[in-house]
Write a structure and sequence with these properties.
single chain, 220 residues, Alpha-Beta Plaits, Aminopeptidase, 2 domains, 4-stranded mixed beta sheet, globular
Protein backbone atom coordinates (compact mmCIF):
# COMPACT_ATOMS: atom_id res chain seq x y z
CA UNK A 1 0.00 0.00 0.00
CA UNK A 2 0.98 3.62 -0.33
CA UNK A 3 2.86 5.39 2.42
CA UNK A 4 0.80 7.52 4.80
CA UNK A 5 2.99 10.55 4.09
CA UNK A 6 2.31 10.44 0.34
CA UNK A 7 -1.28 11.67 -0.14
CA UNK A 8 -1.11 11.60 -3.95
CA UNK A 9 0.02 7.98 -4.34
CA UNK A 10 -2.41 5.19 -5.17
CA UNK A 11 -3.17 2.33 -2.78
CA UNK A 12 -1.86 -0.93 -4.23
CA UNK A 13 -3.34 -4.03 -2.62
CA UNK A 14 -1.21 -7.06 -1.78
CA UNK A 15 -2.15 -10.61 -0.90
CA UNK A 16 -3.25 -9.34 2.50
CA UNK A 17 -7.04 -9.33 2.84
CA UNK A 18 -7.61 -5.64 3.54
CA UNK A 19 -8.76 -2.35 2.03
CA UNK A 20 -7.96 1.24 2.94
CA UNK A 21 -10.68 3.41 4.45
CA UNK A 22 -13.18 4.61 1.83
CA UNK A 23 -12.34 8.19 2.79
CA UNK A 24 -9.02 7.60 1.00
CA UNK A 25 -10.77 7.37 -2.41
CA UNK A 26 -9.96 10.10 -4.92
CA UNK A 27 -12.50 12.56 -6.34
CA UNK A 28 -13.70 10.03 -8.94
CA UNK A 29 -14.20 7.38 -6.26
CA UNK A 30 -11.16 5.24 -7.09
CA UNK A 31 -9.87 3.74 -3.86
CA UNK A 32 -7.31 1.03 -4.64
CA UNK A 33 -5.63 -1.02 -7.35
CA UNK A 34 -4.67 -4.68 -7.51
CA UNK A 35 -5.44 -7.57 -5.22
CA UNK A 36 -7.60 -10.40 -6.49
CA UNK A 37 -11.21 -11.42 -7.05
CA UNK A 38 -11.40 -14.12 -4.40
CA UNK A 39 -14.76 -14.64 -2.74
CA UNK A 40 -13.32 -13.48 0.58
CA UNK A 41 -11.98 -10.22 -0.86
CA UNK A 42 -15.14 -9.48 -2.85
CA UNK A 43 -17.36 -10.01 0.18
CA UNK A 44 -15.09 -7.84 2.33
CA UNK A 45 -15.26 -5.14 -0.33
CA UNK A 46 -19.06 -5.05 -0.50
CA UNK A 47 -19.34 -5.15 3.29
CA UNK A 48 -17.22 -2.00 3.35
CA UNK A 49 -18.89 -0.03 0.55
CA UNK A 50 -16.37 -0.95 -2.15
CA UNK A 51 -16.85 -2.61 -5.53
CA UNK A 52 -14.58 -3.64 -8.46
CA UNK A 53 -14.94 -2.01 -11.87
CA UNK A 54 -12.26 -2.26 -14.54
CA UNK A 55 -11.63 -3.12 -18.18
CA UNK A 56 -10.33 -6.49 -19.32
CA UNK A 57 -6.82 -5.19 -20.07
CA UNK A 58 -6.60 -3.24 -16.79
CA UNK A 59 -5.47 -3.98 -13.27
CA UNK A 60 -8.32 -4.60 -10.83
CA UNK A 61 -9.72 -1.22 -9.76
CA UNK A 62 -11.71 -0.80 -6.54
CA UNK A 63 -14.23 2.05 -6.14
CA UNK A 64 -16.21 3.80 -3.43
CA UNK A 65 -17.79 6.91 -4.99
CA UNK A 66 -19.12 9.92 -3.12
CA UNK A 67 -22.01 10.57 -3.49
CA UNK A 68 -23.50 7.09 -3.73
CA UNK A 69 -26.52 6.21 -5.88
CA UNK A 70 -29.10 4.20 -3.92
CA UNK A 71 -32.76 3.31 -4.00
CA UNK A 72 -34.88 3.36 -0.89
CA UNK A 73 -37.29 0.58 -1.90
CA UNK A 74 -40.40 2.41 -0.74
CA UNK A 75 -39.49 5.29 -3.09
CA UNK A 76 -39.54 3.20 -6.25
CA UNK A 77 -41.24 5.10 -9.07
CA UNK A 78 -43.67 3.11 -11.21
CA UNK A 79 -45.17 4.97 -14.16
CA UNK A 80 -48.79 4.42 -15.23
CA UNK A 81 -47.67 2.49 -18.28
CA UNK A 82 -45.34 0.36 -16.18
CA UNK A 83 -48.11 -0.35 -13.68
CA UNK A 84 -50.11 -1.85 -16.52
CA UNK A 85 -47.15 -4.06 -17.36
CA UNK A 86 -46.77 -5.10 -13.72
CA UNK A 87 -50.47 -5.95 -13.48
CA UNK A 88 -50.49 -7.93 -16.72
CA UNK A 89 -49.26 -11.45 -17.32
CA UNK A 90 -46.66 -10.35 -19.86
CA UNK A 91 -43.65 -11.22 -17.71
CA UNK A 92 -42.78 -13.92 -15.19
CA UNK A 93 -40.05 -13.53 -12.55
CA UNK A 94 -37.71 -16.20 -11.22
CA UNK A 95 -34.67 -16.04 -8.95
CA UNK A 96 -31.35 -17.87 -9.27
CA UNK A 97 -32.48 -20.27 -11.99
CA UNK A 98 -29.78 -19.30 -14.54
CA UNK A 99 -27.26 -17.02 -12.83
CA UNK A 100 -24.45 -17.58 -15.34
CA UNK A 101 -26.76 -16.87 -18.28
CA UNK A 102 -27.75 -13.55 -16.72
CA UNK A 103 -24.06 -12.66 -16.34
CA UNK A 104 -23.45 -13.50 -20.01
CA UNK A 105 -26.45 -11.42 -21.11
CA UNK A 106 -25.34 -8.43 -19.00
CA UNK A 107 -21.84 -8.73 -20.46
CA UNK A 108 -23.11 -8.80 -24.04
CA UNK A 109 -25.45 -5.80 -23.84
CA UNK A 110 -24.25 -2.74 -25.77
CA UNK A 111 -24.24 0.33 -23.57
CA UNK A 112 -24.14 3.96 -24.66
CA UNK A 113 -20.75 5.56 -24.00
CA UNK A 114 -19.05 2.28 -23.13
CA UNK A 115 -16.57 0.47 -25.34
CA UNK A 116 -16.56 -3.17 -24.31
CA UNK A 117 -17.58 -4.61 -20.95
CA UNK A 118 -16.26 -4.70 -17.40
CA UNK A 119 -17.86 -8.13 -16.89
CA UNK A 120 -14.77 -10.08 -17.90
CA UNK A 121 -14.35 -13.85 -17.72
CA UNK A 122 -12.49 -13.44 -14.43
CA UNK A 123 -15.39 -11.38 -13.07
CA UNK A 124 -17.90 -14.00 -14.22
CA UNK A 125 -15.95 -16.76 -12.50
CA UNK A 126 -15.64 -14.71 -9.31
CA UNK A 127 -19.35 -13.88 -9.09
CA UNK A 128 -20.32 -17.45 -9.99
CA UNK A 129 -18.37 -18.60 -6.93
CA UNK A 130 -20.24 -16.06 -4.80
CA UNK A 131 -23.48 -17.35 -6.28
CA UNK A 132 -22.56 -20.89 -5.25
CA UNK A 133 -22.12 -19.55 -1.71
CA UNK A 134 -25.60 -17.98 -1.81
CA UNK A 135 -24.25 -14.42 -1.77
CA UNK A 136 -24.59 -13.35 -5.41
CA UNK A 137 -28.14 -13.62 -6.75
CA UNK A 138 -29.95 -13.17 -10.02
CA UNK A 139 -33.47 -12.12 -10.93
CA UNK A 140 -34.69 -13.41 -14.29
CA UNK A 141 -37.58 -12.11 -16.41
CA UNK A 142 -39.33 -14.44 -18.83
CA UNK A 143 -41.78 -13.79 -21.64
CA UNK A 144 -43.35 -16.88 -23.20
CA UNK A 145 -40.61 -18.97 -21.56
CA UNK A 146 -37.88 -16.87 -23.22
CA UNK A 147 -35.35 -15.02 -21.02
CA UNK A 148 -35.84 -11.35 -21.93
CA UNK A 149 -34.34 -9.49 -18.97
CA UNK A 150 -32.76 -9.69 -15.57
CA UNK A 151 -30.25 -8.39 -13.08
CA UNK A 152 -27.70 -9.69 -10.60
CA UNK A 153 -25.97 -8.43 -7.50
CA UNK A 154 -24.70 -9.13 -4.00
CA UNK A 155 -27.25 -9.76 -1.25
CA UNK A 156 -25.94 -8.60 2.13
CA UNK A 157 -29.31 -9.12 3.79
CA UNK A 158 -30.32 -5.54 4.58
CA UNK A 159 -28.67 -4.17 1.42
CA UNK A 160 -28.71 -5.51 -2.13
CA UNK A 161 -25.70 -4.32 -4.12
CA UNK A 162 -26.89 -4.22 -7.72
CA UNK A 163 -24.19 -4.95 -10.28
CA UNK A 164 -25.79 -5.00 -13.72
CA UNK A 165 -29.03 -5.62 -15.59
CA UNK A 166 -30.06 -6.35 -19.15
CA UNK A 167 -33.16 -6.28 -21.29
CA UNK A 168 -33.88 -7.62 -24.76
CA UNK A 169 -37.56 -6.63 -24.58
CA UNK A 170 -38.94 -3.24 -23.60
CA UNK A 171 -39.56 -2.90 -19.83
CA UNK A 172 -38.08 -6.29 -18.90
CA UNK A 173 -35.19 -4.96 -16.79
CA UNK A 174 -37.54 -2.38 -15.20
CA UNK A 175 -39.82 -5.26 -14.25
CA UNK A 176 -36.94 -7.06 -12.51
CA UNK A 177 -35.78 -3.90 -10.72
CA UNK A 178 -39.28 -3.05 -9.49
CA UNK A 179 -39.83 -6.62 -8.28
CA UNK A 180 -36.52 -6.42 -6.41
CA UNK A 181 -37.58 -3.14 -4.79
CA UNK A 182 -40.96 -4.55 -3.81
CA UNK A 183 -39.28 -7.55 -2.21
CA UNK A 184 -36.90 -5.34 -0.25
CA UNK A 185 -39.73 -3.13 0.97
CA UNK A 186 -40.52 -6.01 3.31
CA UNK A 187 -37.04 -5.92 4.86
CA UNK A 188 -36.07 -3.59 7.71
CA UNK A 189 -33.36 -0.97 7.01
CA UNK A 190 -33.11 -2.22 3.44
CA UNK A 191 -31.70 -0.22 0.54
CA UNK A 192 -30.59 -1.11 -2.96
CA UNK A 193 -27.10 0.08 -3.82
CA UNK A 194 -27.02 1.33 -7.42
CA UNK A 195 -23.41 2.56 -7.11
CA UNK A 196 -23.30 5.31 -9.77
CA UNK A 197 -25.81 7.83 -11.10
CA UNK A 198 -27.66 7.18 -14.35
CA UNK A 199 -30.76 8.93 -15.66
CA UNK A 200 -32.44 5.55 -16.05
CA UNK A 201 -31.98 4.70 -12.36
CA UNK A 202 -33.04 8.21 -11.35
CA UNK A 203 -36.25 7.79 -13.35
CA UNK A 204 -37.00 4.71 -11.24
CA UNK A 205 -36.58 6.59 -7.97
CA UNK A 206 -32.90 6.10 -7.16
CA UNK A 207 -31.09 9.08 -5.65
CA UNK A 208 -27.62 10.19 -4.62
CA UNK A 209 -26.74 10.32 -0.94
CA UNK A 210 -23.46 11.16 0.81
CA UNK A 211 -21.10 8.21 1.05
CA UNK A 212 -20.95 8.73 4.81
CA UNK A 213 -24.72 8.14 5.04
CA UNK A 214 -24.43 5.03 2.88
CA UNK A 215 -21.67 3.68 5.11
CA UNK A 216 -23.83 4.17 8.22
CA UNK A 217 -26.65 2.19 6.59
CA UNK A 218 -24.20 -0.48 5.51
CA UNK A 219 -22.98 -0.99 9.06
CA UNK A 220 -26.45 -1.38 10.62
Amino acid sequence: MKKDNDPNAMFFLTERLEFPSVEKANAEGLLAVGGDLSSERLLLAYQNGIFPWFNEDSLILWWSPDPRMVLFPDRIKISKSMRKVMDSNQFRLTQNTCFEVVLDKCSAIKRVGQDGTWITNDMKNAYSKLHQKGIAKSYEVWENDILVGGLYGIDLGHIFCGESMFSTTSNASKFAFIKLAQEFQQKDAAIIDCQLHTKHLESLGAEEIPRSDFMKMLKI
